[in-house]
Here is the input.
Amino acid sequence: MSNSPSPLSSSVSSSVSNAVPHSSFTALVIAPAQVMRGAGLLQEAGAVIARYGQRPLLVGGKRSLEIVQPRLAATFEQHNITSAAALYGKACSEKSLTRMRQALDDHQGDLVVGVGGGKALDAAKLLAHQAGLPVVTIPTSAATCAAWTALSNVYSEVGAFQYDVGLTQCPNLLLLDYDVIATAPVRTLIAGIGDALAKWYEASVSSGHSQQTLVIAAVQQARVLRDILLQKSEEAIAQPGSAEWREVVDATVLMAGVMGGLGGAQCRTVAAHAVHNGLTHLAQTHSSLHGEKVAYGILVQLRLEELIQNSQLAIASRRQLMQFYEKIGLPLTLKDLGLGGVTVEALEQAAQVACAPASDIHRLPFEVNPAQLMAAMVSTTAPTDLTLKTMSFESVSPGLRNDGIRSDGMRSDGLRSDGLRQDPELTADSLSPNISQKISQKISQKTSSKEQP
Ligand SMILES: [Zn+2]
Here is the structure.
């Protein structure tokens, strides 16, 4: 047996590798032990929840708890389940976790039930992990696959991303009640589509060359997931509750999680989520949803691949996604995210966070600095045909143009050594007039300093 580290071992997070030092074994953390789905499921859920505990603490936001608690009341009584509820607050933060831990102790809880979207479920999973208790997840929207995954994101009190925590297992039980999902605003489903789409664009970059069976399977699943979303999202959004809508809900809540679990940490995030993480440090973005920022982040990532790697596949992908985003209402630009008036300083702050040494942006097969990232961030809607014409392929090493796209649709690692070439579309978006100029200056400084050996 080989002792070389497997990418799958990294999926098991620092918490597990600490628990099992010097081990060449890898734990696969792929899926919840039990998944149940169906319309009206919660009203019947007492029996299955009772297998995991009799004194659950429900963790959620106000709206989610108001929707879910009445559905559980009768079935809880029938199965002698005594529950209490705790609001997770504004974010899954260290402070709110301490508060919820107290609520759990006060209730003498033996089970945590997470109710809500990504943040509430992340809080519930992490609370259960820390307390050594089982956890049940009840998603109330299709905005993320947090109900499935063995991962919690921790944010500051004001909602800025801090770090993520890998958990030792996926939830014990996931209850997907379509009636509950249908109560969420359609915007949450659209955001979930954006978050799930990112799986392909990120995993194909980070893991497209993997020779490992399960990672190959995960990357291919991400591609299938993208295709399902591209095909069915429009109809699903137009007809909530329809068969098509259920398939898209399954895609964003379940399949996105399957893919993440199978592929492990390597398949999870690259630049799209790094851009999201950077943007959370700007207060103006707190009104936009996780998946909306991630969807915008996909365009930024593709733009980086165009600008730095001269990837034609990235240009074609961006063209396809721009049309799709416009159809279903995902944000294409900073302006769409409520950042039309962003200052260059604020943008730089977000870019610095996204380019921090430990950031997943460095899983891209080329180096990225904050100035390059800012250039990509302000030009996500640069004309795709114009970009093709103005790219000077002659100036890069021969063969790259063809090598940039493999016949199987994977991106190659062929990268350009000359950093950022040009960005003819820096005046994109309705940003403050001098922002493009300032960013251009920063880029030319970086580029010229690179050219001088
Ligand atoms: Zn995400």
Summary: Strands lie at 34-37, 56-60, 84-87, 111-116, 135-139, 151-155, 161-166, 173-176. The chain has two domains: 34-184, 271-453.
